[in-house]
Amino acid sequence: MLSKKMLLIINPVSGRNKARNGLIDLANVFSNNGYIPTVFSTRGVGDATEIVLKHARDFDLVVCRGGDGTFSEILNGLMRIEDRPPVGFVPAGTTNDLADTFGISTDPRRAAATVIKENALTNDIGLFNGRYFTSVATFGFLTESSYATPQNLKNRVGRLAYFLEATKEVKDIHAMHLRVKSGDFEEEGEYVFGAVSSAFTIGKIIKLDPRTVSLNDGKFEVFLAKHPGSAAGWRNMLWSVVDRSFDKRYITMFQANSITLESIDGEEIPWSLDGEFGGYQTNVDIKIIEKAYRLFRPRQNL
After folding, report:
1. Which pLDDT belongs to residue 271?
2. What is the largest CA-CA distance in the chain?
3. Which of 197, 201, 225, 265 lies 20 to 30 angstroms, CA to CA, from 214?
């Protein structure tokens, strides 16, 4: 059997510290199937990107053992090198939204089997003011909770930690005055939430029609929610998200390969990229790069 050199990057604090658990077993699974894994551990934000930039060129593939943020960091490194090796994902995060999108099991042995048995398929990637993101960029209500939740709280109570953090945001909901442009579409309004994604779900709350979503068609799914203006409006809007009717009085949805969002009054709006802090922005330019990288994942998610 011809051996392949594998760069295995782990985030030891991901998902209640489970990334470090079973590491030897995971390495053995790969070793027994013809791979030579070299393990690097991250110590802080940005480490995974730097590891990729320094070492990925010397390997046949890169595998992430961590959460969505770690995977996004790895891709930010891969996109800055030529002849990118394919990437595998063994999820160990708190929410694992990317695993759901890609159809990858959260069981480490099954995820490893995906790397071993499946082909590396092409995927689109987003570019947000010069920074790459894998799946979703969001602003507005519930956005801050995705990156502001303390790691130790996520480690203790898992997904519940995000909802505990989100309850702090409810009292602070306010509309953001934005001008949105994409191709022939131009709209100005008071928005409470927005998402630009290449995914089947947004935060496992907003579920999109899988028949219209593709991970490598060069198009984003854009979701914009205006302030409903009253308690009854909030109820109608949120219920339409639950039953996926998406009330057009409040919600605008369309596909696009690029989009710009401008804060009319100059408010600096916090954004989240794949669940990590994307900075305070007054103007945002988002583009999609079609078939930018290769990921070992099941074919049925095309």
Report:
1. 95
2. 65
3. 225
